[in-house]
Each structure stands twice: as structure tokens, then as C-alpha cells.
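Shipment paperwork, digital attachment
Item: protein structure file
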Amino acid sequence: MRKRLNYANVTATVALFFAMTGGAFAAKHYLINSTKQINPKVLKKLKGNRGPVGKTGKEGAPGKAGASGQQGAQGAQGPPGPFVANLPSGQTLRGNYAGRAFGKAGQNMQIPITFAFPLARAPTTHYIVFGEAAPSECPGTAAEPQATPGNLCVYESEAAINATTIRVFDPIGGGNNEANRFGAGVAAAAVAEGDFRVRGSWAVTAP
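Attachment content:
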């Protein structure tokens, strides 16, 4: 019976009741209000119980990804960066050196070392023979070359072969144990006739 109870059935029932009992009863018990409509309080009592909540439908599958948008126009090229005139103070450059030659005893060999950026002034040079302790200005190793500011440290990575009088020199001024603000050189001489070689790494730090 509850399933068939609706607004139309209730209205028809109330109307039939009015016809049988007369309008006086309806007015007396406030079934009908001043607008000749069924009193809301009466309708509230005549409502049936709330039905069960319907089941939620399954969520649909996500749609396909849209096509990629067109690539935007290339932006204007920015201005060129400033050219480094001198290596900034405290910055370090590193590199390798290696030389091999065949000659008679006393034959010289020279290996260039060029800094990628010039220094404000020439550094103090240090040549660290393989197996010997490095000075405090050169706290690194051949595998990890280091130099304190204002110093060039040249490390042997292995003992020199058939070579002697190995030194750092200035390619411009020619002075031994010197460098210039653009780089330096490593010089060696053969002990005896035959193959002779030196190799290693270096580090220079701007003053």
C-alpha cells in the first residue's frame, strides 16, 4: 500500500473525505488553509517513509589525451655574456701534462702548460717529484691537484723515466722555476740515450 501512496492519491482521499463530512470539519481542523490548499502540516504527516537511496552508477573510463599543441616560436637570442679578462681571484684551473721523446743523453724536452684564462699576475711555481712531500702551497695530489691562491703546483703522476733536471720554466721570459700569467712549461733532459718521459697534472689558483 505504501508503494502506491502518492500526492494524487492523498489529494483524492482528502477530497472524498471533504465531500462526505463537509467543509466545516475541514475548516475546523485546519485541513484546508485560507488559500484553499491542503495545510502543509497535514501534508507532512501524510508523507510516507523515505525510500532507499539508489545505487551510484559506475564512473566512466577517462577520455583519451588530447593532441599536443604546436611548438611556440623561438625566442630572441640574448646578449652575449661578458668576456673573462682574468681568472677571478680564488678560482682554480686544472690540467694534465705529458711528454715522451727518444734521444741521446742530455737531450731536452719541453711540455707547454697553458691556462684557459689568464691570471692577473704570474703565479709562484712548485714542481712536486713523484714520491716526495708537497709544500703547504700544494695541498693536493696528482689525482686531485690543488693549489693555494697565487700558486702553480705541478705534480708528477709517476716517476720520470730516464729523465733528469725536470723543472718548471717561463716560456716567455725563459726563467727557470717561473711562470707567466698565461701559463708555463715543464722541461726535462734525458739521462742516457733512449726513450725518456715525464707526466702528471697541475693546478693554479688565481691570486
